């Protein structure tokens, strides 16, 4: 399993690593790749549920043109552009790690775990860079003045 | 309490809805951000407080073609442009209703997994579960109402 606890020491235990009692429950775990992936999946998941609630709540403004226009205008403010990028990072990570879980659980790809993790990691980075470029570009143009950012594929 | 006897069905559904969401999100993102005619958020633009973003030529033309030469390309009009075609509207509304249900189930089932991991006493779990599914139900009603009545 991905999770090692102190109650079940690994082979190298005894020579190094914390042995004294710890008061924080989090310190009892050694964070490894799988554990880190699981933790991030959980954190981004909770974040996305919170976003989903706000997002659906915002749909109510569709009943009135003025309110809706004001809301969308707000979405173009700098702080929302940063949020938009953070949202993409969370979605891309959660989607690709979720795909990894599905491939392992339903198609039995666990023997290829490591390779799968690296491949999907690269795909995630590409999604974030390509999909996030419009937001970064917009923020750069706003911060450093028009024409300062390379438009690339936009 | 047949549902609590086995969570295997929900566990399986969580994976299925997750897979569906990947494809639905790609569609959703494409329509909202990358199609120059119907994108309601023009992603390359940051505006100062309360200022309306400028839309690409394709969006302006689309709105004018639908709502007359004087029609302005505001975010609302761009969305309405998408919903003005009855066939298209039914298709999009159908897609969005399905999307709403799948996303809510996936999100709130996941949230319940997290909650039951940290809340140990049965009463607390019951309260957390009822509260979160009530929230999901309220959001479903708000979402359904918004999607169905949009453009009426």
Assembly of the depicted chains: heterodimer
Query: Which parts of chain B are unreliable, with pLDDT below 50 for 5 consecutive residues or more?
Result: none
Helix content of chain B: over 70%
Cα(first) to Cα(last) distance of chain B is 42 Å
Radius of gyration of chain A: 21 Å
Mean pLDDT of chain A: 82
Classified by CATH, the class of chain A is Mainly Alpha
Note the total helix count of chain A: 4
How would you describe the shape of chain A? Answer: globular
What is the domain total for the residues of chain A? 1
- Kindly report the average pLDDT value of chain B: 85
| Category from helices, strands and their pairing of chain A | mainly alpha
How does this structure look, described?
- With 154 residues, chain A is an all-alpha fold.
- Helices cover 64% and strands 3% of the residues of chain A.
- Chain B is an all-alpha fold and 152 residues long.
- Chain B has six helices and no strands.
Features:
heterodimer, A: 154 residues, 3 helical TM bundles of succinate and fumarate reductases, two-stranded antiparallel sheet, 2 strands, B: 152 residues, mainly alpha, 74% helix
Topology:
The complex is a heterodimer of chains A (154) and B (152).
Chain A: E1 4-5, E2 29-30, H1 33-58, H2 65-75, H3 78-107, H4 113-144
Antiparallel strand pairs in A: 1-2
Helix pairs in contact in A: 1-3, 3-4
Chain B: H1 2-5, H2 8-34, H3 57-67, H4 75-84, H5 86-118, H6 122-149
Quick summary:
Chain A has four helices and two strands, in the order ββαααα. Chain A has 154 residues and is an all-alpha fold. Chain B has helices at 2-5, 8-34, 57-67, 75-84, 86-118, 122-149.
